[in-house]
Amino acid sequence: MQAGTQRRERVRSARVPRHRSAQPAEDFSATFTALGDLAYDGAQVSASVTDLDTGKTLVAIDERIVLPTASIGKILLLVEVSARLTERDFTGYGILDKTPRDAVGDSGIWQHLQAPSLPVADLATLVGATSDNLATNVLLRQVGLDAVRARTESLGLLRTALLDLVRDSRGPDDAPQLSVGSTAELAWLFAALARGEIVDSLTSSRVLGWLSLNSDLSMVASAFGLDPLSHRGTDHGVLLVHKTGTDTGVRSEAGVLRGPRTAVAYAASVQFNDSGLAARLRVLDALRVVGLDILEYVH
């Protein structure tokens, strides 16, 4: 209990800024300590932070290892959907029906709505805003997992993939994870989206628009002081676009944070023994520390 209290005080207490000049601080020592403590206790950790303007690597912690990333892989589906809208393979107003085989629980709100059908663009919006599992499965049925994989490979991503549709339970014949990824590739993906380089500027901008609605600020982004339900615009000089992934024993986040000084692309993943609430909260505390270091760097 004493150790837990000390962690809470360390994370929640006011931090004295390390920088006093016009240049952003580059000391991510708290990030290395927080994630290192998790690793020493048996968790697998990975993190990558790069300066979006200069390309300089700020944090690299086992950034090339492949870890489960849960719903983060849905970004790859959104890229494929956006590319098809750009290429006019189908219209964003095209209506898709939900079917019994698409049904799945957990994240998302469409499963709680009466509407049996929604436009393609609205489904992508639901995925971006609430990581909607039902909307994900309906879109995947429309575009195909093979097409998402082909698009992923065309982007040069070798360690990041959407492996399957969303399932309530995974059997021996199913992919063991919804998605996997390396934080180096995920940080690169967000940097490329921010620069308009994923397929083209229109495709990238559309994906960023969907992801800008993400309402999950429970991990790294918990440090940014933003309104979870309304942060599409700049707030106190801070602008965030990100995606999170949550599963039992998995917490992962990737995004872009722009501040008054500079901007970063970041990704952090932790795979841990989710044996109890204390273990989970410790991971969330560590990810918040990552966010505090990122915020200080850009702000």
From TrEMBL:
Residues 1-12 have a biased composition (Basic and acidic residues). InterPro entries: Beta-lactam/transpept-like, Beta-lactam_cat, Beta-lactam_class-A. It holds the Pfam family Beta-lactamase2. GO terms for biological process: beta-lactam antibiotic catabolic process; response to antibiotic. Residues 47-268 form the Beta-lactamase class A catalytic domain. Keywords: Hydrolase. GO terms for molecular function: beta-lactamase activity. Residues 1-24 are annotated as: Disordered. This is Serine hydrolase. The lineage of its organism: Bacteria, Bacillati, Actinomycetota, Actinomycetes, Micrococcales.
